[in-house]
């Protein structure tokens, strides 16, 4: 019994080993990514820690490991041409591999790489950083014993065109073996390469390159689902006695199609058979999909016209440079999908293989790019690298376009080679050029750009637009651009610049413990921070690009629960999504109790792509007693599209319940020649009799340094001729209206409770204004935190109001600047929207401000803004320290001033030169200076 068992076990083991031997084996000599590395011997020839043998983790960029010199692309580099990394690594090769084909594969090395095995050259020096290359080292190995791999990596290429294409760009310049190195072990007769074209109609074509050793062979194939179920019957082709290329064709009826919304994948297994014996097996994943460009029309995927909601992505991580991992790829693609993006551009070079794998599996359209920033490869070099690019990435269904260089880095002689090398004949574009039927020009101003696009004949697809810088761009201006793109039949979408702030760890500064370096404003371009910290624009992009669009709706007492919606999906019915609703009654500024809430059902409507309809909420009885209503949409893959919030209670309702006017004591007032001094409930208020401005506040615990207001912003502080009188128990101090001399008016009302009301009626100073509202002074050093009811938690700009949510928020003071270390979000300083009330928590006395006006912004101090060389980005803030605004400024981008990003970026319009009181703007604020 035991004898039979062991016989069966060893037979099973034999067949398993045989099956493994028939497959391509991959043996890593390095680690697999920045989260798993292997130490190699290393010698750096210049810069930090040069001139000595030590070790370095592979893969990595050597600057991030404390070697060499950091360089940004524009920097002059004194070590250019001199900085090299010398690598050594010993490895064993079993005797059983003798007779097999052994390839040594480098997935990516910066920049020129010369390789030796056991002292002998493995082949020509490889020039070019981002492309996988391999050497057949079968005849150079010592089988059954040790071997020595030596690699000399030159940071700067001996080929001027490689430096022009790759290293003289607007990004960090690194050196090193930054992607994995491995041995590829194949049978002597094997399938050398597979290229697949799988159409949406089920037509499957595969071209295989074979090494048959001159033997007659047969290649068979079987398609499977990604989970392993057979699809259709096997199919095969026979070959002659020569090494050759063969083509296999099959039709699969009604396949599940691949799109960014439905990333359905399959796999196909190819078998090379000789003399009835299985020699080699190769398995490849793929997707059925058809991409078609219809000139003067648009991009069609599986017969459906699409628009791309995309972002540019550098391969980057702060502590490892261009050396990444699959975990980083999963993180990045999920962040993009969570922003409701459907596309990504590989700027300005091909990515890691695992990034494309994740785009395949989670669903992103990819524009894959042959490197070239403002310079291009020469034709011989470019031809070689183009072939490596396509051979490596050809089978990814996510890759739908090729890009031949960026912003002038185009070699036109290479254009025909894309179609020659690519079985799918993907379309080729030039970034920032009107070429191939696509106008991809970068950073067009809204009026010029949209106007030009709408009146041109090319499909419009800016491969870079709304250039982020710190907190500018990205979400700021996006809604204006996107709505114009959505309505224009010739617009195919666009790609924001760019995804991540490139803040790098400087190992040459404070042992890598100092702040991350973005090289000033050059690398601070992301929607997320270096470690993927979410900035305010992240949430704006998420709302603007949600494929479920909820139109504006006011919630009135007669509201019937109906929301107008639009399905902006291309392949998904809204019935495949799910919707939920929640009602919330929030706590007040002094409450420690949690908010109360209740949920309600929402039936998903049946709307086809591009259809409009309604979303019906089944509101419970008594819904009017809540403060906010939330609607959440979830996509078919259980990913939140967005949660919209709507006000039920308006600021005047909240102010009425919050502000306590009655008190047991009286309001007393004294006058001097220059001041009114008013006291109520242990609070003393001192106001200038000449200007009406607040001079001093004192409560039972001492002075509160909130003073010098209200100062009108972009209006004349012509409050004059103040008088005082009583209104019941209240004391009122107010200015006198005069159409010419004092048309702006100020009124203070002090209640027995100690609450104070400010009422300002004002006319903005001119036809157009940047900001409207009032300012006060407060020492920034005394501010500790704020708690507010309104939209949050991120700050807003006039051209970036979307993305937030109504609720009660807390935020501790920080002095962070977007895009710069220490990357603390949300930022404290700036404008905050839809204020109901705000409690200011200080090192001394706390105080609370409430309003009965809708759409009031409160502003917290002024960030220490840096700018760009063109002064496009610079945001404008009011004077003073704390402001309450009815109009706020917009923000620009690195390449555009705020007013050129669209209507939302322009100034506010106010026209009334008559200065009649009834036509004035009005702001009412209530103050609680009790310190509670």
Automatic annotation (TrEMBL):
Cofactors (names)? Ca(2+)
Subunit structure, as described in the record:
Monomer.
**UniProt domain Glycosyl hydrolases family 2 sugar binding: residue ranges:** 54-185
Annotated signal sequence range? 1-21
The protein's matches in Pfam families, at most eight in alphabetical order, are given as: Bgal_small_N (PF02929), Glyco_hydro_2 (PF00703), Glyco_hydro_2_C (PF02836), Glyco_hydro_2_N (PF02837)
**Taxonomic superkingdom:** Bacteria
What are the EC numbers?
Answer: 3.2.1.23
Protein name according to UniProt? beta-galactosidase
Instruction: List keywords of the entry alphabetically.
Output: Calcium, Glycosidase, Hydrolase, Signal
What is one process in the GO biological process aspect for this record? lactose catabolic process
Against Gene3D superfamilies, the record matches this protein to: 2.70.98.10, Galactose-binding domain-like (2.60.120.260), Glycosidases (3.20.20.80), Immunoglobulins (2.60.40.10)
Molecular function (GO) terms for this protein are: beta-galactosidase activity; carbohydrate binding
Q: Which lineage is the organism of this entry classified under, starting from the top rank?
A: Bacteria, Pseudomonadati, Bacteroidota, Cytophagia, Cytophagales
Location of the Glycoside hydrolase family 2 catalytic domain: 291-512
């Amino acid at each position: 019994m035991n004898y039979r068992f062991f016989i069966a076990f060893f037979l099973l083991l034999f067949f398993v080993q045989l099956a493994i031997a028939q497959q391509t084996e991959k043996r890593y000599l390095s680690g697999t990514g920045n989260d798993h590395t292997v130490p190699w011997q290393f010698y750096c020839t210049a810069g930090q820690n040069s001139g000595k043998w030590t070790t370095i983790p592979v893969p990595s960029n050597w600057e991030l490991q404390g070697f060499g010199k950091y360089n940004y692309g524009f920097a002059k580099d004194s070590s250019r041409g001199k900085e090299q990394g010398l690598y050594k690594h010993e490895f064993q090769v079993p005797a059983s591999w003798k007779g097999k084909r052994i390839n040594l594969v480098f997935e990516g090395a910066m920049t020129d790489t010369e390789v030796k095995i056991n002292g002998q050259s493995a082949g020509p020096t490889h020039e070019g950083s981002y492309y996988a290359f391999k050497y057949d080292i079968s005849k150079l190995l010592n089988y059954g014993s040790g071997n020595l791999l030596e690699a000399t990596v030159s940071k700067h290429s001996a080929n001027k065109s490689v430096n022009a294409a790759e290293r003289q760009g607007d990004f960090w310049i690194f050196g090193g073996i930054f992607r994995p190195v491995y041995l590829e072990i194949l049978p002597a007769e094997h399938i050398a390469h597979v290229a697949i074209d799988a159409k949406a109609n089920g037509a499957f074509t595969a071209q295989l390159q074979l090494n048959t050793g001159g033997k007659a062979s047969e290649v068979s194939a079987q398609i499977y689902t990604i989970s392993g179920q057979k699809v259709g019957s096997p199919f095969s082709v026979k070959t002659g006695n020569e090494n050759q290329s063969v083509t296999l064709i099959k039709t699969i009826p009604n396949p599940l199609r691949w799109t960014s919304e439905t990333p359905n994948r399959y796999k196909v297994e190819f078998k090379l058979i000789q003399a009835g014996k299985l020699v080699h097996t190769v398995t490849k994943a793929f997707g059925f999909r058809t991409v078609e460009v219809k000139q003067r029309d648009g991009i069609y995927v599986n017969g459906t016209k699409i628009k791309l909601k995309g972002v540019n992505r550098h391969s980057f991580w702060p502590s490892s440079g261009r050396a990444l991992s699959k975990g980083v790829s999963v993180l990045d693609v999920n962040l993009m999908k969570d922003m409701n993006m459907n596309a990504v551009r590989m700027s300005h070079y091909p990515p890691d293989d695992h990034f494309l794998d994740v785009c395949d599996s989670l669903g992103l359209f990819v524009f894959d790019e042959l490197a070239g920033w403002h310079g291009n490869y020469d034709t011989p070099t470019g031809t070689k690298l183009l072939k490596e690019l396509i051979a490596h990435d050809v089978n990814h269904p996510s890759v739908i376009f090729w890009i031949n260089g960026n912003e002038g880095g185009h070699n036109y002689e290479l254009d025909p080679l894309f179609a020659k090398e690519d079985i799918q004949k993907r379309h080729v574009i030039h970034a920032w050029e009107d070429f191939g039927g696509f106008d991809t020009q970068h950073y067009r101003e809204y009026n010029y750009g949209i106007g030009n696009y709408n009146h041109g004949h090319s499909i419009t697809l800016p491969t870079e637009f709304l250039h982020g810088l710190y907190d500018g761009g990205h979400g700021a201006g996006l809604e204006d651009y996107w709505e114009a793109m959505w309505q224009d039949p010739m617009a195919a979408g666009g790609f924001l610049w760019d995804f991540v702030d490139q803040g790098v760890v400087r190992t040459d500064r404070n042992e890598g413990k100092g702040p991350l370096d973005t090289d000033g404003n050059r690398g601070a371009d992301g929607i997320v921070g270096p470690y993927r910290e979410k900035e305010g624009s992240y949430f704006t992009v998420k709302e603007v690009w949600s494929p479920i669009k909820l139109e504006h709706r006011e919630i009135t007492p007669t509201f019937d629960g109906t929301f107008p919606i639009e399905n902006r999906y291309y392949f998904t019915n809204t019935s495949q999504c799910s919707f939920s609703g929640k009602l919330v009654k929030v706590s007040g500024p002094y409450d420690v109790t949690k908010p109360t809430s209740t949920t309600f059902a929402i039936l998903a409507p049946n709307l086809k792509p591009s259809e409009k309809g309604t979303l019906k909420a089944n509101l419970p009885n008594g819904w009017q007693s809540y403060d906010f209503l939330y609607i959440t949409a979830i996509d078919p893959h259980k990913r939140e599209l967005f949660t919209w919030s709507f006000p039920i209670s308006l600021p005047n309702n909240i102010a009425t319940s919050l502000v306590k006017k009655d008190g047991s004591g009286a309001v007393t007032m004294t006058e001097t020649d220059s001041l009114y001094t008013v006291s109520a409930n242990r609070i003393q208020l001192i106001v200038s009799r000449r200007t009406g401005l607040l001079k001093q506040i004192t409560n039972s615990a001492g002075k509160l340094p909130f003073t010098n207001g209200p100062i009108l912003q972009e209006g004349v502080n012509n409050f004059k001729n103040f008088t005082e009188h009583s209104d019941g128990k209240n004391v009122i101090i107010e200015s006198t209206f005069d159409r010419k001399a004092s048309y702006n008016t100020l009124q203070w009302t002090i209640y027995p409770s100690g609450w104070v009301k400010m009422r300002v009626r004002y006319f903005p100073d001119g036809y157009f204004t940047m900001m409207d509202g009032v300012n006060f002074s407060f020492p920034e050093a005394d501010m500790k935190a704020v708690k507010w009811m309104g939209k949050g938690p991120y700050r807003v700009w006039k051209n970036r109001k979307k993305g937030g949510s109504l609720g009660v928020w807390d935020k501790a003071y920080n002095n962070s600047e977007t895009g710069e270390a220490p990357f603390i979000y949300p930022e404290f300083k700036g404008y905050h929207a839809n204020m109901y009330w705000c409690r200011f928590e200080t090192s001394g006395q706390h105080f609370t401000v409430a309003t009965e006006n809708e759409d009031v912004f409160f502003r917290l101090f002024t960030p220490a803004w840096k700018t760009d060389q063109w002064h496009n980005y610079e945001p404008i803030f009011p004077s003073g320290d704390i402001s309450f605004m009815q109009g706020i400024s917009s923000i620009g981008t690195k390449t555009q001033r705020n007013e050129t990003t669209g209507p939302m970026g322009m100034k506010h319009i106010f026209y009334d030169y008559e200065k009649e009181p009834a036509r004035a703007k009005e702001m009412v604020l209530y103050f609680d200076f009790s310190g509670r």
